[in-house]
Structure prediction request, 165 residues.
Amino acid sequence: MKTTIVIVVGAVVSALIIIQVLFLLYANKPEIFVDAGAVKTADSLQQTETHVTAAASNPEVRPDTLEAEIKPTLEKIKKAVQAQKESVEKKEQPNITAVPEAKIDTVDVKAQAQMLEAMGADGASKIMRTMNDKEVKAILPKLKKRTAAKILVSFDPDRAARLLR
Prediction:
């Protein structure tokens, strides 16, 4: 049980360290995280803006001509943005799987039950008070009914009721 907790805590700490490193990299060099397609889209957007500004300042350009010139560029930008979105969606997110909960070995439970049975109800109840509910639930059925009953009586009523469910 303790080993599982140590493994889970280690995995969480490692994930936090990796996230922190990524944030630091992004803060110092955000261009690392930008696709080449996004840079091209930004450049084409600046070119379009320059072209529109120049066309707007020219009194000879009519609005339908301006629209006809802008429409293809706008379509290219929309396609580039869509491609960028699709590439971001395709990138796999790191898959963090949960560490499986440690299963209580039945051989160990039997051995523990035999040891606790040999101690008597008073000694066993003192030890079992420090165990978690899952461990106690695994051991109680392996004990004699009389011993298990004496142990449950020594627990506080709420915990005893929880263990009997």
